[in-house]
Write a structure and sequence with these properties.
The chain is α+β, with helices and mostly antiparallel strands and 133 residues long. It is 44% helix and 20% strand. It contains four helices and four strands, in the order ββαβαβαα. The chain has a two-stranded antiparallel sheet with strand order 1-2. The longest helix has 17 residues.
Length: 133
């Protein structure tokens, strides 16, 4: 969640695969809340996974505090659980995946792809493999 853009991603119903959904322009908190509320009403997620921009040294800096403040407002407004995930290197991973898939980074914004990376990390961590040998 940046100051100008918010990437959104969804998982499949089985919570196995995350996919980029949309990129929202972040104009002001009221408009941003309305846009996210519309997505939540449409897709009815159980919870929201929010990328937290933790500093490279592992500390919570001013940008992460801004994200947490807005996320708390979002949670109260939508009455939905928020789970924070470290978003360090998610954009780099998203760009690598887009490049590997042949998508041109100049024409595709990477915010939603980074959101999918963050969500996929959460899904992989919380869902054990379905089939153990």
């Amino acid at each position: 969640m940046g100051d100008k853009w918010i990437g959104a991603a969804l998982s499949d119903p089985l919570r196995i695969l995350a996919s980029p959904l949309v990129i929202l322009r972040r104009d002001d908190d009221t408009k941003t809340l309305e846009n996210i509320e519309s997505l939540v009403k449409t897709h009815q997620p159980d919870l929201l996974i929010i990328g937290l921009p933790i500093s490279l040294n592992g500390t919570i800096g001013p940008q992460a505090e801004k994200v947490k403040s807005f996320s708390e407002l979002l949670s109260r407004h939508l009455n939905i659980e928020i789970i924070y995930r470290d978003e360090r290197f998610s954009t780099d991973e998203a760009r690598r995946k887009m490049n590997d898939s042949g998508k041109n980074n100049k024409t595709v914004r990477d915010d939603a792809a980074a959101a999918a990376v963050i969500l996929q990390d959460y899904l992989d961590e919380t869902n054990p493999p379905c089939c153990q040998p």
